[in-house]
Amino acid sequence: MKLSFKNIEKEFSDLRVIADFSRDISDGELVALVGPSGCGKSTLLHMAAGLETPTRGQVLVDGAPVRGPHPERTLMFQENALYPWLTLAQNVALALEFQGVAKAAALKQAAFWLEKVQLRGFEQYFPHQVSGGMRQRAALARAFISHPKALLLDEPFGALDALTRMTLQDVLRQLIREAGPTVLLVTHDVDEALFLADRILVFSARPATVLKEFNLAHHEKTHDLSEFAAMRREILGLLGIHAEADAAAAQPEEIAA
Ligand SMILES: Nc1ncnc2c1ncn2[C@@H]1O[C@H](COP(=O)(O)OP(=O)(O)OP(=O)(O)O)[C@@H](O)[C@H]1O
User: Fold this and answer.
1) Is the ipTM of this complex over 0.90?
2) Assigned architecture for domain 1-72+149-242
3) What does pTM read for this prediction?
4) Which residues of 29-50 are buried (b: 16+ CB within 10 A; e: fewer)?
């Protein structure tokens, strides 16, 4: 599914949030959106989901204007995504039941997807009985069960510790490889963007404009991101975070001859 943002501008009353954003996201591409807090990244995601409309401009899905939410475009949030009164299996199955699939068939599919995210044996657990990482695994299963053509991820692992986040990034990458959806990922974690994305868009503060775009397609990536150290430094610099140690302190001591 191709997503196109055409001259998007967004204002909330007097607040100018997005200033003339245009980009095409190709079918199967994973584009990460990074930028300062409150610059409008989630707003762009909500527009692609059909939950928010641009003040000016258009969001197109395979050439047709977005008119509202659709199960083909699935939004996934940071946390609290599961219903606490339903088991993990029931939560995952619900995504299919909403689309008219009978409960028994939906639960069978849910078991399959829970196994894919390594939650076999936890089908009957309630969300509060499992860890945050396990809840997000279940949320991933729920996102993928309906075979979305576009996945809109809003800080999906933002509430997890660094190690759990990395294992979840691996799970997500495997699911994406198998299912091939187009993905828009909002993240504050530059390493997450470097690891997962084919392209990274770095936004300015409000009103958001793209400061710079980084292309990472065709790189075989691992969590060792040393190959991308210069890019990482540049992205952090654009975000106003200076990664270099104090230049003077970083100088090796001169060796007396
Ligand atoms: N429905 C709304 N009504 C009014 N203002 C809104 C609405 N949605 C978002 N905003 C405002 O628009 C701005 C951008 O919000 P948005 O959530 O898109 O930013 P963000 O870049 O995703 O931020 P963060 O990284 O902190 O999640 C914020 O100032 C926010 O308060």
Assistant:
1) yes
2) 3-Layer(aba) Sandwich (3.40)
3) 0.91
4) bbbbbbbbeebbbbbbbbbbbb
